[in-house]
């Protein structure tokens, strides 16, 4: 699968390092028939105006011309934003590649992948603030129930990378392990590995499992797209070797809700040894709004080899209580990586994915770059904030309107409690959320904890529903 102007974005400055992947305009392979485009939003996390320079590269590493408005601009301080949409850049020719963004202030970034002027397909993710020589992808598929993965690998170093991709099958998967080695990637460029284009003699049909991506001594950035059916897309970051943990939080776990929402969880064993049966645990605390729901714990019922993944999947595992939602904590005897899917099987094609939250986080401030309360076009953003502490957390929330939000004002909530190991949901699909705030309000959300560290994620949705996939999810920005 390929698409025009498909780029990954890497921001390198003395202040920050970010990694993103963006796309826009051509499709010609088996993973999807859609024409995909992207925009990316840069958020200034510093106090001063940021001077930003962007260089774009084709897949072969050669320069790729873009409009001056996409290559040199400023971003106001204290949460100021700049949105760069590839589909509005008339200078860029069709194709795919990457971008390197340099700034004199720390930046955060969010990318949206869209099928514009078609039945919707959409995905989103937050840019990584670090790169690494080795990445892990907990779920990879090839032609399993019309689902296939695409792994995007950017060379974030200054020399040619010699990349190896190792695919590790899940216990019940068809086929066997497979290693693809000797992949050269020029500095700044991105390589797109589409499993749907892999030979079935290498990776069998209906194969699923995990992946390890290594650049040797060269720094990389890795993003994964999971395409399913005609319209569905789930996008998430690969996990760096230096961001692993024995404990992770799933801030929103759902099991067969009335709207069919379920959230399968993929856990990749990176401990260096086998995890025995019942060695991996997921302990779940119901949300305050989940009437009648009780806490529960579930464990792995098969041994998990090193680099292999195990799945807590409420879609097929009926021992997990139905109509349950809340926050879960995953604990393992060694390092693991965890990500979450959001699906409504049998109801619609909307789906999303987000990375679970490392329990070792220390940030007490969270910035959500875009909150929208039921806009005229139906766009809205549920936000989930996770308490990383073993005691209740008290948070203060400030909602600051975007400069273009006509007549909008600032709103705040004080002394809001988040239960120990629990999460707080602010669902702006509902008009009753922050009742004093009118619909059509949009801006940023800052959550400050007075004690415990916090983290979270945000969903980008469309109220009323349309055909195709209109659901996206991504992480938030954390500050000290």
Key phrases:
480 residues; mainly beta; Hypothetical Protein Tm1070, Chain: A; globular
Broad structural category: mainly beta
Query: What average pLDDT do the residues reach?
Result: 90
What general form does the structure show? globular
Point out poorly predicted stretches.
1-17
Distance between the termini: 40 Å
- Rg over CA atoms, rounded to whole Å, is 21 Å
Molecular structure report:
With 480 residues, the chain is an all-beta fold. It folds into four domains: 6-126, Hypothetical Protein Tm1070, Chain: A; 134-241, Sandwich (Hypothetical Protein Tm1070, Chain: A), CATH 2.60.290.11; 244-358, TM1070-like (Hypothetical Protein Tm1070, Chain: A, Sandwich); 365-479, Sandwich (Hypothetical Protein Tm1070, Chain: A). Helices cover 1% and strands 51% of the residues. The protein has one helix at 68-71; strands at residues 6-12, 17-22, 37-44, 50-58, 72-75, 81-85, 96-103, 107-114, 122-126, 134-142, 147-155, 161-169, 178-185, 190-194, 207-214, 220-228, 232-237, 239-240, 245-255, 265-269, 281-286, 296-299, 309-312, 324-343, 351-355, 357-358, 365-373, 379-380, 382-387, 393-401, 411-418, 423-427, 441-449, 454-462, 472-475, 477-479. The strands form seven sheets. Strands 19, 20, 21, 22, 23, 24, 25 and 26 form an eight-stranded antiparallel sheet that branches. Strands 2-1-7-4-5 form a five-stranded mixed sheet. A hairpin with an 8-residue loop joins strand 12 and strand 13 (178-185).
């Amino acid at each position: 699968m390929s698409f025009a102007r498909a780029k990954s974005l890497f921001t390198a400055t003395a202040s920050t390092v970010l990694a993103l992947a963006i796309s826009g305009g051509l499709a010609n392979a088996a993973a999807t028939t859609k024409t995909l485009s992207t925009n990316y939003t840069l958020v200034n996390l510093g106090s001063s105006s940021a001077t930003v320079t962007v260089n774009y590269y084709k897949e072969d590493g050669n320069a790729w011309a873009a409009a001056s408005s996409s290559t040199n601009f400023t971003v106001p301080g204290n949460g100021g934003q700049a949105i760069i949409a590839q589909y509005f850049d008339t200078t860029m020719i069709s194709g795919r590649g990457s971008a390197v963004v340099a700034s004199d202030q720390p930046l955060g970034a969010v990318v949206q992948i869209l099928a514009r002027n078609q039945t919707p397909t959409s995905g989103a993710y937050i840019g990584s603030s670090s790169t690494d020589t080795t990445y892990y992808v907990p779920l990879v598929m090839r032609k399993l129930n019309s689902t296939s993965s695409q792994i995007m690998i950017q060379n974030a170093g200054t020399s040619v990378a010699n990349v190896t991709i190792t695919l590790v099958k899940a216990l019940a998967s068809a086929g066997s392990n497979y290693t693809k080695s000797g992949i050269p990637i020029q500095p700044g460029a991105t390589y797109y590995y589409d499993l749907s284009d892999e030979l079935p003699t290498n990776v069998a049909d209906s194969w699923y499992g995990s992946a390890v991506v290594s650049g040797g001594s060269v720094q990389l950035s890795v993003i994964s797209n999971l395409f399913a059916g005609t319209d569905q897309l789930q996008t998430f970051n690969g996990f760096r070797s230096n961001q692993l943990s024995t404990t992770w939080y799933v801030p929103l776990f759902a099991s067969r809700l009335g709207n069919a929402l379920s959230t399968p969880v993929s856990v990749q064993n990176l401990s260096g040894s086998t995890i025995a049966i019942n060695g991996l645990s997921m302990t779940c605390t119901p949300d305050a709004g989940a009437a009648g729901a009780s806490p529960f714990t579930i464990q792995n019922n098969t041994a998990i080899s090193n680099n292999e993944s195990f799945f807590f999947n409420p879609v097929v595992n009926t021992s997990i209580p139905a109509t349950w939602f809340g926050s879960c904590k995953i604990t393992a005897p060694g390092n693991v990586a965890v990500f979450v899917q959001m699906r409504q099987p049998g109801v619609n094609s909307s789906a999303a994915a987000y990375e679970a939250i490392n329990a070792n986080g220390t940030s007490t401030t969270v910035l959500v770059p875009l909150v929208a309360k039921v806009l005229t076009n139906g766009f809205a953003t549920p936000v989930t904030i996770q308490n990383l502490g073993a005691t209740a957390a008290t948070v203060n929330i400030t909602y600051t309107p975007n400069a273009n939000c006509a007549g909008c004002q600032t709103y705040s909530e004080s002394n809001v409690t988040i239960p120990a190991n629990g999460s707080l949901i602010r669902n702006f699909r509902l008009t009753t959320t922050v009742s004093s705030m009118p619909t059509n309000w949009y801006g940023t959300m800052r959550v400050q904890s007075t004690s415990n560290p916090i983290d979270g994620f945000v969903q980008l949705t469309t109220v009323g529903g349309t055909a195709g996939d209109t659901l996206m999810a991504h992480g938030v920005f954390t500050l000290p």
